[in-house]
Amino acid sequence: MAKIRYFYDTETCKYEPIKVTKGSMFLNVVGFLTLSLIMAFGLIYIYQANFTSVKESNLRAENNNLKLEWSILKEKLNNAYSNTSELQYKDDKIYRVILDTDEIPATIREGGVGGHNKYERLSEQGLEDSELIIGTYQLVDNLKKKLYIQSKSYDQISTILSEKERMWASRPAIQPINNKELTRLHTTFGRRFHPILKKWINHDGLDFTAPKGTPVYATGDGIITASYRSTTYGNVIFINHGYGYQTRYAHLTKYIVGRGESVKRGQVIGYVGSTGRSSGSHLHYEVLYNYKPINPINFFQRDLDNEEYEKLIEISKQETIPLD
Ligand SMILES: [Zn+2]
Question: What's the gap in Å between 260 CA and the centre of ligand 1?
């Protein structure tokens, strides 16, 4: 049962019941609700302005952790970028110097990685720490480019190295006869008195005295261009080593390689004899560079130690009679 409220009527000098109309009741309710809503929004505003929710606190903490992680990542990338400088130094100042090859121009190594707009997407997001993020992306891109160039450089060095190895393997750089089997080396290279013809002519090689049947080795990698019997050279082998070098092995008792055959340095190609115009069992050995005979003694250092090489040079200065 609704509670009846009274008021004191001064005219009637009596307490009269207050009559509540539906309209005034509605207004009261609306007023009450409006006031409640205003107070509720006010409280929410004050709460949000002054207090953070657990969820928001967690998000803030996570955000700070992410910022820290990005900073650490950026630092690590910086270190990796610095380390590539060491690779670059070794590349330019050691490998390329040894291989006598030009350095990679700085304009290529330090070239940019795309235009300014590349990071526009990140700038437009209006992130609080966009500078950190863009800086990290730039480092990644620079590092990628630097490593790509370094990788290409190593490919190039590898190709050059293979070519140099081929060239070094092709040079006639060893003795055609093993030192142990060498009885004597006649080193009269150039003009000398011919023992059979009894006149002064050029002797274009070195004569290695060794017993008949002593193995003769190819002095560098190459292709046999001829192996035949000649009236002067006797059984002879010609090898083309490429890079301007050729060698000849004469007066053999026998050759065991044929025209067009590939040979490796140190491979047995024939045996010492005294065929052709020869006055005793020996190998006549010639080295030609661009078709001109050169003194083979300058090529023997590869299979001799310093002492042996000095001794050989000393022997080469002595006057000896070639066997042709
Ligand atoms: Zn000779």
Answer: 25
The predicted-structure confidence for 237-250, as pLDDT tens digits, reads as follows 999 999 999 999 99
| H or E element that contains 69 | helix 54-90
Name the DSSP letter for residue 3: P
CB atoms within 10 A of CB 60: 11
Q: Is residue 324 part of a domain?
A: no
Distance CA 70, CA 34 (A): 49
- What is the Å distance from ligand 1's center to 170 Cα? 23
Across 115-135, average pLDDT? 78
170, 200, 222 - which closes a domain: 170
What is the model's pTM?
0.62
Q: 255 CA to middle of ligand 1, Å? A: 17
Compute, in angstroms, the gap from residue 214 CA to the centroid of ligand 1. Answer: 16
Q: Tell me, in angstroms, the distance from the centre of ligand 1 to residue 279's CA.
A: 10
Which of 139, 138, 145 has its CA nearest to residue 116? 138
